[in-house]
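forwarding from the other thread:

> can someone predict this with C2G?

sure thing
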Amino acid sequence: MDKVSIITPLYNNDYKYITSCADLLMKQVYENFEWLIILDEINPQVAGLLANYEDLDIKLITDKDVTNVASARNVGIRNSEGQSLYFLDIDDYIHEHTLFCLVETMKTSSAQMVVGSVKKVNVKPSYSTSYSAMLDRMLKNRHIKASPIKSKKMRSSCLNILYNKSFVEDYSLSFDQSISDLSDVTFTMPAFEKALNVVFDKDAIYLKIRRNDAVQFPSLSQRSNRALVYPISIRLALKLLEPGSKISIMLSRRFLYSYHHRYFSDIYNGDINDHRRNILIEWAETFREVNIDEMKFNRFIHKVEVKYLINNNFTTATKMAKFRSVIKNIKKVIKKPKVAKKLIYTSYLSRKSSVKPTWILYESFLGKNYSDSPKYIFEYLNQAHPDKYKHIWVFDKGRKELPFKSTQVKRFGFKHMYYMARSKYMVNNMRQPKWFVKRKEQIFLETWHGTPLKKLVFDMNEVHSANPNYKLDFYEQSRSWDYLVSANKYSTQIFKRAFLFDNEILEYGYPRNDLLYSPDKDKIASELKEKLEIPLDKKIVLYAPTWRDDEYYKPGKYKFKLTMDLERMREELGNEYFFIVRTHYFIADHLDLDNVSDFVFNGSKYDDITELYLLSDVLITDYSSVFFDFANLKRPILFFTYDLEKYRDTLRGFYIDLQEDGPGPLIMNNDELISTLKNLDEVSSNYRDRLDRFHNEYCELDDGLASKRISEKVIVNNK
Ligand code: C2G
């Protein structure tokens, strides 16, 4: 059987992917391959990491020529001994049958290139037995149809294509080393032009994993200035093609498409400074090289614009492009009035309107409720400094009865945009919208929403949540925060590292816990019980679980399946206990608790969980930060952690060892939960010391005055 040479360039910060890539290759059904890893410098660490993979034929190669990914791949080609070549990036993923399919198709079709399919995904898939069984079935039923490849499947990327090595040598195909990112096109396009027989195999799957930390570990494409390099790469590729050939025309048309759709704003946004002039020069140069008569311009005016560019008349080209984008925006606005509000905010209100020094804009949990630290800061300011400020609350649905006068605006409505642009102070417990424009007169107070148990942002390895750009977005959004509230020393250390945060952290305790120190707390609790029709003669259990990163319908809309058997709880504990069940604010599923309504109050829609803490005798949670706050009351805490291993080890990772240091027992199933609640006194006396220690460590700053400390520092005494 023919040997495949797998070529993988490897740079400094990519070492962390090396063993998982080796694991993938160990799993390949097709085993006759050598793996050439091309390094920019000799590194003993790499050899150490690969020491256990004796079964793989690994060649570590360094060469003085290796300066970028293009040269590394060329060195790989030169050093390869196989009959075919395959490029694999260290942080990507191939299914176990990928090589097998490609090699098999190449053999049966005698193709010079076999092109597999590439999908972009956010996280690596995890193998399951059902998946392996599916693969087995698929491999048995393969009907290889050697169909010639269509032009839209001719990717610029060299990945997941098996190349016949003699074909590559006969035509001296290589990557242009003068560029790094985007150099692929200088290899693939000539290859497609020269190859007489190219076949597509959809079963050979390659997963391109999007790097979720573009801030600390950007991929090559995330690092590079693509708007500048792209036209250069196309020019270099065109020079290698026959003028007027089918491939050359296809590439020219792709270039025009990218001009309109991918790079337009990078080319034309902002004033013509040196950076933008360089970009314009490169685009003009490439447009001069292509035959613009072969291009399909949608409108004559587009062609005129490009002609100005070609003639180096950058000012006129820019004016025309900007005019075009204004027209486009107007069309968008007519179609979608939502866009209009944003546009008026970003281009007018946030630039031209004046900032009002006494206006404060509050938002809690994305406008879902009147709660958390923003609520307590609002109440403090109203009590201590009545009539001094104008208070504006953002809510996503309808108006709410608040204890003090306030203006209420609908989230993302026009009034919201108006107050976002003009309020001097913003008090928010989550991230603001990505398009928020921070004005220099504005002060952003981020209260955050919990002492973390689950690893946060840059402390997370893989992001399993619905948004693949989570880390980059978080980084950019948090740059606008002037102050960040921390409830304890532990949180401060984590926030600095996990948010890469260098602005001021106010380690002042949590405003949201002030109520737990109110001298009237018992009275408040019993009045609330009456209001919510919660029995006065039963012990109240608050069950407040968190969300699961991998169970969602779409971003912000998460699923939740109730594992707690409430009917059994009622049967066994109904005489003594009454339950409040409260899901996390991300949960879109509405729990149907009608059949247990005499035993359970559905507190999911209740505004403020702090008030629910006050009336609860016991807290049950899983991995939610709620227990750090509830610990202020020194009442028993139980952890219903039926999916502990998955949550801790796969999804998130924890900062503290719940088993060793948590303030209560971990309970894995309904039986244990029932017996623990039946013996609650005994269990809580066993955990008394741990709860005390936990309280000392995480609650020492909370004393009922955090709202005061923070409001006075950030708002009242702000000069
Ligand atoms: N919360 C709630 N009801 C729940 C769960 C959470 O009201 N059933 C509120 C609590 O105020 C809690 C906050 O939402 O402190 C954050 O919830 P977590 O479950 O801890 O999850 P998350 O939103 O991911 O925040 O540093 C804290 C972390 O960011 C966790």
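Residues 4-215 form a domain with the Spore Coat Polysaccharide Biosynthesis Protein SpsA; Chain A fold (CATH 3.90.550.10). thats all i got for now
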